[in-house]
Amino acid sequence: MTPEIENAFAAIRAEFGRESIDRVEQMLEPGRDERHPLQKAAKWIMPGLSPTPWHDPYAYAELAPVVHALEAGHPAIKKELEAAWTARREAFSDYEHYLTRQEDWQALHLFRKGGLVEESAALAPTAYRVLKEFAVDTDTICPLLECHFSTLLPAAVIAPHCDLWNFSINLHLAVDIPDGCSLTVAGERRAWEEGKCLLFDYSFEHEARNEGTRPRTCLLVDLWHPQTTVPERRALVALITEIRRLMGDE
Question: For the segment 159-178, what is each residue's pLDDT rounded down to a tens digit?
Fold first, then answer.
């Protein structure tokens, strides 16, 4: 670890207790790697988090408010998304995943690089407001990642892959779902139900398909895994931010 990470970890331990970030430090131990086979391509697996691919989006007290608010706002969110797609198509961009870039996967970001994307407030005001009030202001969103409208064009496929880690979790609000769309996580295939949320651990291998005849759009929100603690979250932000700085990604 760099001196910057060591100093950040020492400050967290001093504030929260010596054992408060043990799981984060265990994750970094050479040779220690406790993971499900379908998490094999993830970079970091923090021990002690439920190794469950699919989660009940209503089961966690911390996450339930944003889930309910997004579902209640769905009619307005869908209407505003349709207007933006029609009138402001240039606001959407090819999605750049850490593994690839896809022209048939379009994105409109609401939160990125640790902050809200203010330009999107006028395009998607309901989603922006809900995100700010129920995820950003409550520190439920993982600031290391993002929130965006994810639009898969007809015939688009997101190939099977694992995301980087298990200490955040992916919430999908099904905004506009044609027939023929599916999401598969750890070998279990499910379909989105328009206006409802799905929640899954994307450190497990997953893929998405649009085999329909029109675009499929979900609102994706990267939230902290509800089984992580405040000191662990602080340590993880310090760790990943420093790694990104060293890699020239900041």
Answer: 999 999 999 999 999 999 99
Q: Tens digits of per-residue pLDDT, 80-123? A: 999 999 999 999 999 887 667 788 999 999 999 999 999 999 99
Please give the Cα distance from 208 to 191 (Å, whole number).
Answer: 10
Instruction: Tell me how crowded residue 12 is: count the other CB atoms within 10 A of its CB.
Output: 20
Let me know: does 39 contact 33? Beta carbons within 8 Å.
Answer: no
What span, in angstroms and rounded, lies between the C-alpha atoms of 55 and 229?
A: 18
Distance CA 51, CA 194 (A): 27
∠ at Cα 197 (191, 200), nearest 5°?
75
Mapping DSSP to helix (H, G, I), strand (E, B) and coil, where does residue 58 land?
A: coil
Confidence of residue 79 (pLDDT cuts 50, 70, 90): very high
Model pLDDT for residues 135-144, shown as the tens digit of each residue:
999 999 999 9
* Mean pLDDT value across residues 132-151: 98
SS3 55: strand
- Tally of CB atoms within 10 A around 169: 25
Helices then strands, each counted (H, E), the chain = 6, 12
Please give the model's pTM, rounded to 2 decimal places. Answer: 0.94
Q: Tally Cβ neighbours within 10 Å of residue 148.
A: 23
Structure tokens at 51: 């190794």
Residues 6+ apart with CB under 8 A from 73: 126, 127, 130
88 C-beta neighbours (distance < 10 Å), count: 13
C-alpha to C-alpha distance for 206 and 191, rounded to whole angstroms: 13
The residue among 215, 157, 212 whose CA lies nearest residue 179 is 212
